[in-house]
Amino acid sequence: VYxxxxxxxxxxxxxxxxxxxARYAGIEHSAGLRNDWREQSQFRNPAxxxxxxxxxxxxxxxxxxxxIRRVRPGISGxxxxxxxxxxxxxxxxxxxxxxxxxxxxxxxxSRGNLWIVDTGNHTVRRVNPNTxxxxxxxxxxxxxxxxxxxxxxxxxxxxxxxxxxxESIIEQQERIRRGAPSAPISVLVTDTGNGVLRRxxxxxxxxxxxxxxxxxxxxxxxxxxxxxxxxxxxxxxVRLIPNGQKVxxxxxxxxTFGEPRGLSAASLGRLVxxxxxxxxxxxxxxxxxxxxxxx
Length: 295
Prior knowledge:
This protein is mostly beta strands. The protein is 3% helix and 40% strand. The chain has one helix at residues 169-178; strands at residues 2-5, 10-13, 22-25, 46-51, 58-62, 67-71, 79-83, 93-94, 103-108, 114-118, 123-128, 133-138, 149-150, 162-164, 186-191, 196-201, 205-208, 220-222, 228-232, 237-241, 249-250, 260-265, 270-275, 279-285, 290-294. The strands form six sheets. It has a five-stranded antiparallel sheet with strand order 8-12-11-10-9, with no helix packed on it. It has a five-stranded antiparallel sheet with strand order 13-17-16-15-14, with no helix packed on it. It has a four-stranded antiparallel sheet with strand order 4-5-6-7, with no helix packed on it. The longest helix is centred in the middle third of the chain and has 10 residues, at 169-178. It is globular, with a radius of gyration of 18 Å. The two termini are 16 Å apart.
């Protein structure tokens, strides 16, 4: 389990969700922008993480440095800047000239592209490591609002979390049975300032998931059964949209969580929750009923 320690400017790691995490990268209480071996590197308020399962690289939205970083795998893997200049901005183009403004959520699609929620710019961006380029997929840089539509016609208000909108197991089996090609890539984004979830397609189309509303939604995660989980740290809760249903239900009773932020739908029917008051929690769920929360 990898975690960001936003205030300590570090990345943490634990072998199991309930173990005490240890420092993995960065220097405690030492903010900066330095690429080095991971324990000598510096971050400034790292926010979200995405792990490339194919090669073990860990990607970080280094929010107050306005850059995207990569931690190479290995005992002393190096940290490097993937995209961004270190100054806030909204420039597309090559990765060494592109700029971000307080990037938050990050996700990796099946092609290896990085999807970035550029919170300060109210946009959704994509980094293509193969071409070394950054592009704005949806939203008008620097303009907050609420509107569905295509590309720059869409409006977000301080979006934060993101998750790849993958096929459910049932959808995948049906597609394979029909011999159909893979569906276009889309992502779910927590449009925090507007209190809703948005779906963003790779062609730039944006639509709001209705009739769901949330209180300052933060992170979002989707499991293999297509259940959608959303954290609401200011309300101390995590809520669930069961697959195909038009309802939102609580993952656990009131008071279970302190300030849940990061979410990851793990294997074996577990939801891993980064709770900034109670460290890492796990919720074990059925289909789609939550059956236990630990600790």
